[in-house]
Amino acid sequence: MPRRTVVTFERERMELPDGDFLDLDRIDAGSDRTVVISHGLEGSTRDACVRGTAAVFREHGWNVIAWNYRGCSGEPNRLPRAYHSGDTADLAAVVARAASPVVALVGFSLGGNLTLKYLGEGAVHPAVSGAVAVSAPIDLASSARAIDRHWVNRVYLRRLIVRLMRKIRGKARQFPDRTEFANLAGVRGFEVFDDRFTAPLHGFASGADYWARCSAKPLLGRIRVPALLVNALDDPFLTPECFPFDEARNSGNLFLEAPRHGGHLGFIDTVFQPFTWIERRTFEFLATVPETRVNVPV
């Protein structure tokens, strides 16, 4: 059932060095702590999980930046390219814009993979104190194939592909001379979509190359700030490769929680509280992260 989370954002347009832009939705509480929230595939800051998370942090006095990926704010972005699961440069730009002594990161689904990949790459802003990733497909190849091939995902798959192809057709009209948009027929799954569009538009050799280079899993051992990954065992989008039990056991910074239930971005424990379990758990984890970087200049 739809949730009516009351949260009021102020929109800010952030210009990017390549001539494109990102639309950020902000709550300024005058705090020295800011949470940066990254949404999922074809989502936006209007998503219930984003708004609920923003509301729980706002209630505890944090600043909030919920950012829309390129083309996800309700207005097409300017360039032929869009966004993808490993686009950590855009996340890094948003983190730098936060300008707080303490910055915490939260990512949902695609945004969870993006967040963990950003942490694992090593060039982390000194203000970042910790992160939470929820329902994150950290092995993109196996997750894409699971969504494509498992009958239980057909409704979700169709919905996502229809939305993605609608944007690709818009890009084809916007850039009629670009050969990447020449073949729009017959796209029914992510294996074809990523091979035909995501990869060439963003500099990858193929869909498989994109999946391999943008998956967060190979980088988990390099994470140097506390990071919590919450993936439900009954998530229909995730495969065993997305549950890094060994990596978490061998890491002092990666924490894995794998509840039996929760589905994909679910984790609804009650309808009688203002915040869901995952929203409360996210705040609890990030609020208790040791603030070893508070005094590092931003």
Notes on the structure:
This protein has 298 residues and is of the alpha/beta class. The protein has 2 domains: 1-139 and 219-298, Rossmann fold, CATH 3.40.50.1820; 144-214, no CATH class. It is 34% helix and 16% strand. The protein has an 8-stranded mixed sheet, sandwiched between helices. Helix 1 links the parallel strand 3 and strand 4 (63-68). Helix 1 crosses helix 9 (277-287), helix 2 (88-98) packs across helix 3 (110-121) and helix 6 (190-201) packs across helix 7. The N and C termini lie far apart (41 Å). Mean pLDDT is 93; it is low at 292-298.
CATH evolutionary superfamily of the largest domain: Alpha/Beta hydrolase fold, catalytic domain
Main sheet specs: 8 strands, mixed
User: Separation of termini?
Assistant: 41 Å
Helix content: 25-40%
Whole-number average pLDDT? 93
Shape: globular
Strand order of the largest sheet: 1-2-4-3-5-6-7-8
H/E topology pattern: EEEHEHEHEHHHHEHEH
Short descriptors:
single chain, 298 residues, alpha/beta, Rossmann fold, 2 domains, eight-stranded mixed beta sheet, 9 helices, 8 strands, globular, disordered C terminus
Give a concise summary.
By secondary structure, the chain is α/β, with parallel strands linked by helices.
